[in-house]
Structure formats: C-alpha cells, structure tokens
Design goal:
Layout (H helix, E strand, L loop, with lengths): L1 E3 L1 H4 L7 H5 L3 H30 L8 E5 L1 H4 L13 E10 H5 L5 H23 L2 E4 L4 E4 L6 E5 L1 E4 L1 H4 L32 E3 L5 E3 L2 H15 L1 H17 L7 H14 L8 H16 L19 H22 L6 H12 L11 E3 L25
Parallel strand pairs: 3-6, 3-7
Antiparallel strand pairs: 1-10, 2-3, 4-5, 5-6, 7-8, 8-9
Helix pairs in contact: 3-6, 9-10, 9-11, 10-11, 11-12, 12-13
Length: about 375
C-alpha cells in the first residue's frame, strides 16, 4: 500500500499545485499587454531610426520571436517576491546586412544596437512608468505598477537567409542560459555565419534559438503534457529552494527530459510517480556535465559553480527522499506525508488530506526500494 498524490499535483475540480504555481490572471494579462505594446512600438520605431541613422529606408522590418517560459508554456508565478519575477523574453532580430552594408564594425554595431533599443523604449517606459535596466545580454523592462514581472529584450543578428526563416512561434527557446556562454571576439561580419546574440560590451555570441524550439517540441510530442508539468514542478522546487540562483530552467528541462527518455515505465496520469522517478536521477545529473546533442553537442548546460553544484546535488537528494517517503507513507500518516513534500515545494502544495488516494495496485512496487532477497533454491531436473 502507498499514497497517491496525483490530485494534489494536478486536478481540475479543486485547488492543485499546478494551479497554485500558475501566474495570476491579472499579472499575466498585464505582462502580455506590455509585451505587445513594446513589440508594436519597436516595429514602427526601429525602421524610422535606421532610416535616420543610415540615410536610406531599410528593405526589411525587424522581426520578433517570443522565447523562454511563455513560449514553452512552462511559466510559473514567483515564489518569493522580491527578488523573483515572471519574465517574458521577446527576441528582436535584424539581418546582418543592415550593419554590414553600411560598413558598421561588429563591435560598434552591438553597442549601437543596444543604444538604439534603449533609446527607443525610453519614451514608452516613461509614459508607462516602467524602469529600464541594461543587462549584459538584453535590455530589461521592469513593469512595476504592482505587476511582478519584466520583459527582456535580447538582440540578435542573422544571416539574410536565416533572417527570412524567423517567425513568431508558439514554441521558442528557453533563453535563461544565454548569459552563460563564452562570448567570442568578432572582427568581421563574415565570422557570423549563423544567428548571433549581441552583448552590451560589443561582443557577439553564436546562439540559434531555433535549435531549442525543435528539441522541446519533439520531446513534447514524445512525452505529452506530463513533460511540461514535470518541468514546471522542478522549476517551482528551484524557486522555493533558492530565492535567487540555483539550476537554470533549461538545465532542469534537459535533465527531466533525458530521464524520461531513458525510462521504460509508463506513468500515465501519475505525476507524483513521474516526479519521484525524475528526481531520483536529478542529483547525479546536477553533479556533472549536462549536454543535449539536439541543442549543442559541445555545450555544458550545467553552468553551476562547484559550490553551487554541491548544494544542488544535496537539495535534489533531499527532495527525492521526501517525495519517495511521502509516496510510501501509511494512510494514517497523510499529514506528515504532505509536510514532507511542502518542505521542498512550499505552501503552494495543497494541504488537503482528502485529495490523497490510497494506492493498493501494482504502482505500489515503483515506490518501494529494492531489497536484497535470498536466492531461490534451484532444484535439479532432467530435460524431458
């Protein structure tokens, strides 16, 4: 016999963990409205700025692509505010030819790009009472006004053929890891053979959001919505455990996906068992390199420092042990079982004893640790 927490993780009729970590409707509306206003403002103002700066009307208009958790539909509301906030990543794309044809050096172009976006957004921000922050790899728009959110504007250039393929997409990359790449010194535009991210110091980082789009879409096709939910649970664990920092979202997504890729079990609607399975492997993954061939076969997505890795490993072990012990608890200990999970997920995990089912079926074997048993006696027989 074991406990079944599936309803507390995800159910339609009553409060659930998934509902409790979802963005507040009013904040979601405000964030998406701000994103749309920023995009519309820049769609008009960037070509005007380029025409004034370059002396001729550009042949193309900037393109935009939603990226990050809103595109993946893995966004959670903040657990601790401050410092945590929801963020919307809106990538801005221009073709390399805009700069190259006007003999603007790449280093100069990156800085001009930043100054342009910051300058164009400033009047809108003043009207809306937003604050602007120049991050190393994006311009950040803090919404304020009671909305616990910001919009990040990462800036890209793309070779002309690649630029033509850029469209707004439902699925886009998780860009939380971008600021951890080593930035190459680019001396000529010929060096930028693919989509590259502009940095405030004038450098450029090769970064193709489309690779992550393709990767996550394929994994969702394979594993279904449960993968999305497991990723959100892991992010909620991270947000409760670390007020700032901790494993990046893309790292947790890759770890969960690779574990589910390897498993032969079918967890169906049992998110609690799927989470126990994923967290069992998580501590080993966070202690070593994590690479995903479909994103970049050479890139280690685990950019945690040695000290942070040690803490992450221990936190993941503790998390798994609590989930395992809660699942294996007796029905009379349901209150303690909930507290075990809340220790790592916080009060957003429902304290609802009636939402716990008693599992007496075959799934029970999945949560009971394997035991050493005496070998069966082998009775000699003759072949007939």
């Amino acid at each position: 016999m074991s406990l079944n927490f599936s309803k507390l993780f995800n159910q339609d009729s009553k409060p659930s963990f998934l509902k409790n970590i979802s963005p507040i409707t009013e904040e979601e509306i405000a964030l998406k409205q701000a994103k749309n206003e920023i995009q519309q403002h820049l769609k008009i103002s960037i070509p005007k700025w380029l025409e004034m700066r370059l002396g001729e009307k550009p042949d193309v208009v900037p393109r935009f692509r939603s990226q990050g958790s809103w595109a993946y539909k893995t966004c959670n509301g903040p657990c601790w505010h401050p410092p945590q906030e929801m963020d919307y990543d809106l990538g801005i794309y221009l073709p390399v030819s805009i700069w190259n044809d006007n003999d603007i050096h790449p280093t100069v172009a990156a800085k001009v790009y930043y100054d342009m976006i910051h300058g164009l957004i400033t009047p809108l921000a003043e009207i809306k009472n937003w604050n602007l922050i120049n991050k190393h790899t994006c311009v950040r728009v803090n919404l304020n006004n009671g909305t616990r959110a910001h919009v990040d504007l990462p800036l890209y250039v793309a070779p002309n053929e690649e630029f033509k393929k850029i469209v707004e997409s439902r699925m886009a990359m998780e860009s939380a890891f971008m600021n951890r790449f080593a930035f190459a010194d680019v001396s000529a535009w010929d060096s930028l053979s693919r989509i590259s991210l502009a940095c405030r110091d004038g450098s450029w980082s090769p970064s193709d959001p489309g690779k992550v789009v393709v990767w996550f879409k394929k994994k969702m096709d394979r594993h279904g919505q449960q993968l999305n939910r497991i990723c959100r649970y892991l992010k909620a664990w991270r947000d409760h455990t670390w007020e700032s920092g901790g494993p990046s979202s893309i790292l947790l997504m890759v770890c969960a996906t690779q574990t589910l890729d390897r498993t032969q079990a079918d967890f169906e609607s049992r998110d609690d068992l799927a989470l126990a399975h994923v967290t069992e492997a998580l501590s080993r993954q966070l202690g070593t390199q994590v690479k995903e061939i479909m994103i970049d076969p050479d890139e280690d997505l685990n950019r945690l420092s040695d000290i942070d890795r040690q803490r992450s490993v221990q936190e993941a072990i503790n998390f798994h042990n609590s989930v395992r012990d809660a699942l294996g608890a007796d029905a009379s200990n349901r209150e303690e079982a909930i507290r075990l999970i809340q220790r790592h997920l916080g009060q957003r995990f429902p304290n609802d004893l009636d939402g716990i089912d008693i599992d007496v079926g075959p799934t029970n074997i999945r949560v009971i640790p394997a035991e050493q048993r005496p070998r069966a006696t082998i009775i000699p027989t003759k072949a007939g």
